[in-house]
Specification:
Chains A, B: InterPro entries: Homeodomain-like_sf, HTH-type_TetR-like_transc_reg, HTH_TetR, KstR2_TetR_C, Tet_transcr_reg_TetR-rel_C_sf. 2 copies of one chain form a homodimer. Chain A has 193 residues and is mainly alpha-helical. Helix content of chain A is 74%, strand content 0%. The first copy, chain A, has helices at 3-23, 30-37, 41-47, 51-76, 80-97, 99-108, 114-140, 151-160, 174-189.
Amino acid sequence: MSDKYDANRDRVLRVAAELFAKSGYHGTGITDLGTAVGLGRGALYHYIGSKETILYEISSRQLAQMNTVADELALTEADAEKRLRGLARALMRNIATHRAEWTVFFREYHALTDERRDRIIAGRERYESHWRNALDQGVRDGQFRSLPRLMVKGVLGMFNYSYLWITLDGAESPEEIADDFLDSIIIGMRLRE
Amino acid sequence: MSDKYDANRDRVLRVAAELFAKSGYHGTGITDLGTAVGLGRGALYHYIGSKETILYEISSRQLAQMNTVADELALTEADAEKRLRGLARALMRNIATHRAEWTVFFREYHALTDERRDRIIAGRERYESHWRNALDQGVRDGQFRSLPRLMVKGVLGMFNYSYLWITLDGAESPEEIADDFLDSIIIGMRLRE
């Protein structure tokens, strides 16, 4: 597909994310989306296909990017604490930059059916396992104290919940906020000498 | 209103929360709800009124309970760390017990209009201020180190996000999980002597 096709598709997904975040997936019609992007139903179909495809693309894209970042960190950053910091900074930056997409992801992914839903859930589990691996390794390496089994859920919650409040024009950058949050936990988790 | 009226109303709200959590607010019709609770449209209206009233009741009820608990703790528990622990335990227990309601709250409250939406937002802000007050007081009292401005969002995120995963039949009780999470943060926040 051409660059122009990709650019139009990206634009449709971006506008759709904003509409879905504002009015909900079920509350937004294909006609609303067409009006917002200036395309008729046929052209929309050309770029995206069904409304559920749009939801799937919105929900899967940032998650896939975060998994790519996590895969890369797993290969390049051997230190558990530094890897956590890399995961946290990238996630906070991504949520701040794509807040509409993450809002749709958290609110609406359950509206996906069958294989698409399964793939999103599998993607989330894969992403969570990257965080869990870093926590587990930190314990094995003697950086962290023994951690509760569900700690990974708490840590991820700290960051994921930011889709409700984070902005790009706040006093602190997303990376600074990520560092602040992680410091609070890490200092608490760090094995006392 | 009579006890029977209240009991029926509670049952309608409970079933509605489960349906909304499963199929979404927009994806659930009044007819679906009527079938699930065995009431016709007229009887449903008698107990609840509009579909938006149901969403409002579901969204506001647990939040109101948590604000009541927080108000009580603010009066009775002078120690900041103990107050945080009380807030955290009550919230985790409530989310585990009313997971469907919290799922609806987080996913769907934006579908509320005008005054109802404003009241939910005000209720959330009031609840958040209870946590913020406890954190701020802990700093003033020399229990915690100076904390980042957004710390309260991170701490609340840890707990709120549990609507996605917590169960009442896990190996740990909601209170134990709350203690684990808070320990990780508090030990990190505690002023070093």
